[in-house]
UniProtKB/TrEMBL annotation:
NCBIfam families according to UniProt: PRK07231.1
Assigned protein family: Belongs to the short-chain dehydrogenases/reductases (SDR) family.
Organism this protein belongs to: Nonomuraea aridisoli
Pfam families according to UniProt: adh_short_C2
Coiled coil: none
Keyword Oxidoreductase among record annotations: yes
Protein's name according to its UniProt entry: Short-chain dehydrogenase
Length: 242
């Protein structure tokens, strides 16, 4: 992927960090996005130590002006990975208005705003790849995930619409739907919950972020040149009923 610039949102941790490292290994110049400059610098240093090229851009994706600034500072982007996201599992009665807005703003509106800002350049240049991070919870009813799964289901529908909208211009748009994955985000959950979640997969374990990143990088790469509009599940398999 040399000669290509890739913007990875939420690349300071977890799945985004693993995607950034793997894209750099494929030769892409990576823009590591996040809010935490110290963690961003660590990821950039790791990529550079491996011989890759990367720089950090800070932006709060809940702020529309910050998103526009990020798009400006990113410049020419060939590969956009909409990874930054939030997941709070709560019963509906406990979901606050603030958290409702946070899920929609970060998981749905920020990817929309970035695609609106960056896809026209891809169309103009006649090539580009976008990968959106969804979740298995968008397709499978999962306790407490009303707002999270809805915000990602919307992103999956946008993926399908954008794939159709941009296909003839040479821009592919796909999504990856991970199952439970070991990241700083899930590390914050208690061990019993993680064990319960792991047991909902056919493989009986949670994923490492690098396993999810492999699928993201494949869809972003020219190796997936005839694939657009798909949601690729990376879930360790579904359990059978009975
Ligand atoms: N982990 C899982 O089990 C799992 C399963 C299915 C789907 N997913 C999806 O995969 C994606 C990554 O998940 P993860 O577990 O790797 O996440 P994570 O460990 O919680 O890391 C979240 C990343 O998003 C960034 N971020 C959070 N809020 C932000 C904001 N307001 N503005 C800008 N950046 C922000 C964080 O950057 P800073 O800290 O630097 O701000 C960080 O880099 C998410 O979209 C998630 O929904 C995860």
């Amino acid at each position: 992927m040399s000669g290509q610039t890739a913007l990875v949102t939420g690349a300071t941790a977890g799945i985004g960090r693993a995607v950034a490292v793997q894209l750099a290994r494929e030769g892409a110049e990576v823009i590591v996005h996040g809010r935490d400059a110290a963690r961003g610098a660590k990821v950039v240093a790791e990529i550079q130590a491996n011989g890759g090229t990367a720089r950090f851009v800070e932006a709060d994706l809940t702020d529309a002006h910050d998103i526009e600034r990020l798009a400006q500072e990113a410049g020419k982007v060939d590969v956009l990975i909409n990874n930054a996201g939030i997941y709070k599992f709560l019963p509906t009665s406990e979901m606050t208005e603030e958290l409702f807005d946070l899920h929609l703003n970060l998981n749905t509106k920020a990817p929309y705003t970035l695609v609106r800002a960056l896809a026209p350049g891809m169309v103009e240049r006649g090539h580009g790849a976008i990968v959106n991070l969804s979740t298995l919870a968008a397709a499978v009813v999962t306790k407490g995930t009303g707002m999270y799964s809805s915000s990602k289901a919307a992103l999956e529908q946008l993926t399908a619409v954008w794939a159709a909208e941009f296909a003839k211009a040479g821009v592919r748009v796909n999504a990856v739907a991970p199952g439970p994955t070991r990241t700083p985000g899930t590390d914050a959950m208690d061990a019993a919950t993680l064990k319960t979640v792991a047991e909902t997969t056919a493989m009986g374990r949670i994923a490492e972020p690098e396993e999810v990143a492999e699928a993201v990088v494949f869809l972003a790469s020219p190796r997936a040149s005839y694939i657009t509009g798909v949601v690729l599940e990376v879930t360790g398999g579904r359990l059978s009923i009975g």
